[in-house]
Design brief:
This protein is an alpha/beta fold. It has helices at residues 17-25, 68-80, 99-109, 127-138, 157-164, 185-200, 237-241, 246-263, 283-288; strands at residues 3-11, 43-48, 52-58, 86-92, 115-120, 145-148, 210-219, 222-231, 266-275. Strand 5, helix 4 (127-138) and strand 6 form a beta-alpha-beta unit. Helix 6 packs antiparallel against helix 8 (246-263). The model has no long low-confidence stretch (mean pLDDT 91).
Length: 296
Amino acid sequence: MRKTGFIAIVGLANAGKSTLLNALIKQKISIVSPKPQTTRDSIMGIWTDDDSQIVFVDTPGYLQSKNALGDYMLRSIDNATTDVDCILVVVDGHDGISDREIGQIEKYARRKLPLVVAITKTDISQAEKLLPELAKLNAIQGISEVYCVSAKRNKGVDELRQALKKYLSGDQMYFEEDDITDKSQRYLVAETIREKVLLSCENEIPHGIGVAINKMAWENGSWDIDATILVEKASHKPIVLGKHGAMIKNIGIHARESIQKLLEARVFLTLWVKVKEDWRNSPYVLNELGYTSKKD
Ligand SMILES: Nc1nc2c(ncn2[C@@H]2O[C@H](COP(=O)(O)OP(=O)(O)O)[C@@H](O)[C@H]2O)c(=O)[nH]1
Ligand SMILES: [Mg+2]
């Protein structure tokens, strides 16, 4: 019989949570970029092997909410960390552990749940700098274990996954053996497009980006996908389009390539850019884009 259960992945924006989730399940399902607020919704990544099924729940980083989308993101962290077997706090080892992070870890430690800390990005952090950070963690009561990993180089990830199995408390399967996420293909496609916009555009715009899939149809042995990139200010549209459409073309090329990998099939992708002012405060648009809470 397999041991099964849920593990929530929490931590600051940019700590490396989504990269670690993808490494833990050996699949790319959660999008990654150097921009904060890349992950907006909790997304499950499922690992199933001979003796376990671990459902990892990736969350948005802690943030200060400024709009309805921000409120939604905060709620999704709360929802994701309730009723789990273990909390996995991800800390960027390269940046060091801030007082704010220590505060968050202490808060989780008080919950009396198994609490594992993964210090990640060890490929770019110096060992001697990590030692004082480990001492800070040592001083906190209630941490079950600390692991040092590099999600990018896949160092220590297998050991971490193995160690986490002991916290699983269930014995029933929550998902099918070959499921890798709770999200639909459509959602993953929209997220892939959003990732490419985040990676291509400058700082200010990405927070205001949403992606709506207008059409996703399997036709003559390939996927025909039509999607709209929503921006919240008229001045953002020419930036996403780029000079003579160069930016949107580039986004399209990269998105198509990644979506083909995701869907394992040929993809035709058409992208549009549309201004929808203040969409992050519109319940209607949030719902359209799939940011809908299941629990409230
Ligand atoms: N060098 C290095 N960079 C990493 C590692 N993990 C994540 N990153 C980078 O850190 C940034 C934020 O990663 P992401 O997974 O989106 O962080 P999240 O906001 O916590 O989900 C991205 O640019 C990643 O490529 C790692 O193990 N090593
Ligand atoms: Mg993330």
